[in-house]
From TrEMBL:
InterPro entries: FAD-bd, FAD/NAD-bd_sf, FAD_aromatic-hydroxylase
Entry-linked SUPFAM superfamilies: FAD/NAD(P)-binding domain (SSF51905)
Protein name per its UniProtKB record: 2-polyprenyl-6-methoxyphenol hydroxylase-like FAD-dependent oxidoreductase
GO molecular function, one term: FAD binding
Domain FAD-binding per the UniProt entry, residue ranges: 5-308
Source superkingdom: Bacteria
């Protein structure tokens, strides 16, 4: 990649801005387009594991700011219908070495890159036409433009992947669970979880939103309609025991609702021509626990390879390096673990929480799969 390269990145969450940082550092001209009108605040807690993730954050100059905003892993007490404690999920089991809210991390990355990169909010790509020298791009609102490269960093429902590779149904496997994050009136400041077969709700703890996980076949709904997502949640949790009436009342009054399916992407290549996928667009595994660290690692690797070779060679090397990381991420179904469909499954999961040595073993296996356990290549811009 030459220092006159122009790159369009679709998606302003984590992978996109992280890639933009390294590309701009190498001299590229970077534009980031984001369908949402602004950065989405809050969101779920994301975490980093291992020395490599810490080194990446340090190289980007944001490690101390991430530490300043960290939430810290929070123990979650699972209770019975009568509120009696049944088991505790240790905070370190889900929190990694360093935990932060996704929205806070996104804000840090935006502040890092906005002085050197162009951000376009409230717009979306409508077509991609590759030519011998670039990619002609049209937008919903903005004027058409041509870029040397286009990157899909726009999540599991990637618009870039749909346009350049084919429809979502060909690449995204739905795992018959949904999750939701809801900013709603607090019911308790304690971190408490409650299960019934096929559904789980987690309240309180740190400053995270209320967290829902429930079993469901694939649903059709408007992913940009908070009212429609709220309706689905209210239907899914109707008749909930424990403090169900309070939860449903608070949910009905909530304004910020995010609902999505639990699934993973299965795709045989990460690039086509001048278009490449990064982060959840190429290898999502929802709630898998290593997606954020993997996204930052991928951003570093992709930009690093582009700093050393033309896009054809760089994309091939990027895929070769990342393929093993992504394969390690695509394990299990967090929905079945958090919201077992049978009472026996809930009992068995709670029993696991009481067997600390088994949890420790699971954590070690997770660390082996994490990108944070691999050494970073050294690139010239670093």
């Amino acid at each position: 990649m030459t220092n006159t390269t122009t790159v369009l990145i679709s998606g302003a969450s984590i992978a996109g801005p992280a890639l933009a940082y390294w590309l701009a550092r190498d001299g590229a001209t970077v534009t980031i387009v984001e369908k949402a009108p602004a950065l989405r605040p809050g969101g779920q807690a994301v975490d980093f594991k291992g020395e490599t993730h810490m080194e990446l954050l340090s190289r980007m100059g944001i490690l101390e700011e991430v530490r300043r905003r960290q939430t810290g892993g929070t123990d979650v007490t699972f209770v019975s219908r009568d509120g009696e404690p049944l088991a505790v999920m240790p905070g370190e089991f889900t929190g990694g070495d360093l935990e932060i809210l996704r929205g806070d991390l996104s804000e840090i990355l935006y502040d890092l890159t906005s002085p050197t990169c162009e951000y376009v909010f409230g717009d979306s790509i409508t077509s991609l036409t590759e030519t011998a020298s670039g990619v002609h791009v049209t937008f919903e609102k903005g004027a058409p433009r041509t870029f040397d490269l286009v990157v899909g960093a726009d999540g599991i429902h990637s618009n870039v992947r749909n346009l350049a590779f084919g429809p979502e149904k060909d690449y995204v496997k739905h795992l018959n669970y949904y999750y939701a994050l809801v900013d709603m009136a607090p019911i308790t400041h304690e971190a408490v979880g409650y299960n019934e077969p096929g559904r789980m709700v987690q309240l309180g703890g740190s400053k995270a939103p209320t967290f829902f996980v429930f079993s469901s076949p694939e649903l059709t709904y408007d992913r940009y309609s908070a009212d429609e997502q709220k309706r689905i949640l209210l239907d899914a949790y109707r008749g909930l025991g424990w403090r169900g009436p309070e939860i449903l009342a608070a949910l009905a009054g909530a304004s910020n609702v995010y609902l999505d399916s639990i699934g993973h992407v299965e795709i045989d290549r990460y690039s086509t021509g001048r278009v490449v996928l990064i982060g959840d667009a190429g290898y999502a595994h929802t709630l898998g626990g290593i997606g954020t660290g993997l996204a930052l690692t991928a951003a570093y690797v992709l930009a690093g390879e582009l700093s050393q070779a033309d896009h054809r060679t760089a994309f091939g090397r990027y895929e070769e390096i990342l393929r093993s990381f992504a394969k390690g991420a695509a394990q299990g179904n967090a929905g079945r673990f958090l919201a077992p469909r049978r009472r026996y499954g809930i009992w068995l999961r709670n029993l696991l929480f009481r067997k600390r040595f088994l949890l420790d073993q699971m954590a070690k296996e997770g660390e082996k799969r994490a990108a944070g356990q691999h050494r970073l290549p050294d690139y010239s811009f670093a």
